[in-house]
Design goal:
Blueprint (H helix, E strand, L loop, with lengths): L1 E3 L5 E10 L9 E6 L4 E7 L6 H17 L2 H4 L7 H21 L8 E9 L2 E7 L3 E6 L2 E4 L6 H7 L30 E6 L5 E5 L1 H4 L4 H8 L6 H14 L6 E10 L1
Antiparallel strand pairs: 1-2, 2-11, 3-4, 4-5, 5-6, 6-9, 7-8, 7-10, 10-11
Helix pairs in contact: 1-3
Length: 256
């Protein structure tokens, strides 16, 4: 677990964990946490595509470098913004597409991405695909991002019910992601950050295996540490079959 004061009346507790799951040959998820900057990045290499692990690693490293640009020379914290996140995602998309076209081993690779950052008592986020950001607060788990999938589009259009989307055959068909299209338009989110809130970034290896109410139950427990909570979420997903790689990042707003 990392503890980052961030030069405010709040600090962040951050924990991250990733697991291969029960049925995959390799872990195609990637995580990059920048505690001193208050930033977390999670990416899921597209299942069934070539070099998904390469794409996810490229995504988190390129985005981290872009968001850190300007801080390395001065040592100062660079304030995050949704504009910087969007630009960083676009840069990663260009690099992943270039690698996909130049290296036959990487042809067709892609990834999802979700970024969350704390700044000035707010959580800022940007995402592409179906990796998600949640907020847990006062016993309630709220999904803050909307999946860029065919299933979600059909839910929005009233073709299928929200409760059916999780088992619908097209639930994992991505409409947006890194490496899919030449130009990408990430979705952005901004919410007020309050003391005691917990934010969860996760790949679909968690949400496909564990219902939201079970995630809320785990986050509502008194864990010895935030790391223990992250590991418990992964253990529950594996107990439920672990059909995919499982990755989680937990961010808790705490007192300085």
């Amino acid at each position: 677990m990392s503890l980052a004061p961030l030069q405010t009346e709040h600090c962040l507790e951050i924990a991250a964990a990733s697991d291969i799951g029960q049925h995959r040959e390799r872990n195609e998820d990637a995580i990059r946490v920048l505690p001193e900057q208050g930033i977390a990045i999670l990416s899921d290499g597209m299942g069934g595509h070539q070099a998904g692990d390469v794409a996810s690693r490229m995504a988190v490293e390129i985005i981290a470098d872009e968001l850190l640009n300007g801080s390395a020379a001065t040592g100062d914290r660079v304030a995050p913004s949704t504009d910087r996140m969007v630009d960083a995602i676009k840069t990663a998309n260009e690099a992943i597409r270039a690698m996909s076209h130049s290296d036959p081993k990487c042809h067709g690779m892609g990834a999802t991405v979700v970024i969350a950052a704390y700044d000035n008592r707010k959580i800022l986020a940007a995402h592409l695909g179906d990796s998600r950001l949640y907020r847990y607060w006062n016993g309630r788990l709220q999904q803050l991002t909307e999946d860029h999938t065919l299933a979600q589009r059909y839910v929005n259009a009233g073709v299928i019910e929200p409760g059916d989307a999780k088992t619908w055959f097209g639930r994992n068909m991505l409409l947006k992601g890194l490496g899919i299209d030449k130009r990408v338009e990430p979705a952005v989110t901004q919410v007020n950050a309050e003391l005691g809130q917990v934010y969860l970034l996760c790949s679909d290896g968690l949400t496909d295996a564990v219902p939201d109410d079970r995630i809320a139950e785990v986050l509502g427990r008194r864990h010895p540490s935030l790391d223990d909570a992250a590991e418990t979420l992964i253990n529950v997903a594996n107990e439920n079959g672990g059909p995919d790689n499982i990755s989680v990042v937990l961010i808790r707003i705490a007192e300085d």
